[in-house]
Amino acid sequence: MKKILVIALSFIAFTTTGAANEIDKRRVLSINEMQRDHVLTEMRALLSGTQNILDALLREDMVAVARYARPLGMGMTHKAEDHLKAVLPKEFMQLGMSVHKDFDQIAIDAESLKDPKHTLRQLNESMKKCNACHAGYQIRVEKPSTQSGTHPSHDHHLH
Fold first, then answer.
1. Were both Cys, which of 66, 73, 118, 144 would link to 110 (CB 3.0–4.6 Å)?
2. Cα separation of 100 and 106, whole Å?
């Protein structure tokens, strides 16, 4: 028993050390604190909504699937995205918008097709986009610059 424990702990230590020494090769998105809050709040809403959709799918409640998917669609985007377009890469924004479009389609198909497996396939494809985004990007808060000429009050558009 002790031998198995030692082997397991050695394996964990080895894999953890290896992972800790790897260089994070994701593209850095340098944004301010308010922009970061906006992006992360939206991501959390997508995650929570996806969990609600999965719960509704377990119950085969396609009305609830549509109800949970619809707010995650393009209606979730608003003027803050216009401000983020100036600071976030085009590919990042396109990926995000395609996820919102996916949720619009999930809502439409849930109501019209009422097919849980179809919705699962759609959700699976959308989640691939989420994984690609998280694998490709990391967010870092930029340090405020007093020489940039920007004024903090310009961030009020993100509310």
1. 66
2. 10
